[in-house]
Amino acid sequence: MTRLLTVIFTVAAIAASTGLAKADEEFNPLLQLFGGGARSGAGPIPRTTVSYPNNYAPGTIVVDTKERRLYLVQNNSQALRYGIGVGRDGFRWGGVHRITAKKEWPAWTPPAQMLRRRPDLPRHMVGGPDNPLGARAMYLGSTLYRIHGSNEPETIGQAVSSGCFRMVNDDVIDLYNRVQIGATVIVKN
After folding, report:
1. Which residues neighbour 40 within 8 Å (Cβ) at sequence distance 6 or greater?
2. Most exposed among 68, 72, 95, 161, judged by the fewest C-beta atoms under 10 Å?
3. Any idea where the domains of the chain sit in the sequence?
4. 158-183 residue pLDDT tens
């Protein structure tokens, strides 16, 4: 079984990285297997285009922690709206940052303060379907915070993280493919 999952994961990673598996265009059983949605906008909170009057430049990301939504600003007062999981009480924050790095199937090293709270966590985890960062991660400034996927899609719409913003894998892949390093991220708390 482990060998089969390794083969499936490898095929999924290659397909996603080469564009063969377009999560935003069609049913993608590989993403479903690894915690993503079954089709465009699938998940606990469907991705949708909404009216979003604002003064932000297209490509700006606005995170509304109270709504538990992330908006990718488009032209003509429109935005793509995604459901997100946010920081639990005591871990929410606000401010302006830029995306400084983007990674596919990122590795995860829990910070020291998280390990003090949760000594049961691994000290390091390679990227893959069991990794809590999910399929993609976008790093915010020089902080430890990220916009990332999740291996627990049922937590989207909840306040459960240590300050990061989590999305279903289908949505984080869609966002990852739309934004550039240097994009502004505005976090409203």
Report:
1. 23, 24, 25, 47, 170, 174
2. 95
3. 2-188
4. 999 989 999 999 999 999 999 999 99
**Region for residue 86 given its phi and psi (left: phi exceeds 0; alpha: psi -120 to 50; beta: otherwise):** beta
Catalytic residue flag (residue 164):
yes
From 40, 148, 153, 165, active-site residue: 148
Is 124 one of the annotated active-site residues of the chain? no
Q: Which amino acid is located at 70 in the chain?
A: L
Distance CA 128, CA 87 (A): 23
Question: Among the options 61, 63, 73, 164, which is catalytic?
Answer: 164
Question: Mean pLDDT, to the nearest integer, of 80-92?
Answer: 94
Query: How much is the pTM?
Result: 0.77
* Cα torsion 12, 13, 15, 16: sign: positive
For residue 178, CA distances in Å to 3, 61, 73, 159, 181 come to 33, 11, 11, 25, 10
CATH number for region 2-188:
2.40.440.10
Q: What is the dihedral of CA 178, 180, 182, 183, to 10 degrees?
A: -10
Query: Hey, is 126 helix, strand or coil?
Result: coil
Q: What confidence score (pLDDT) does residue 43 get? A: 66
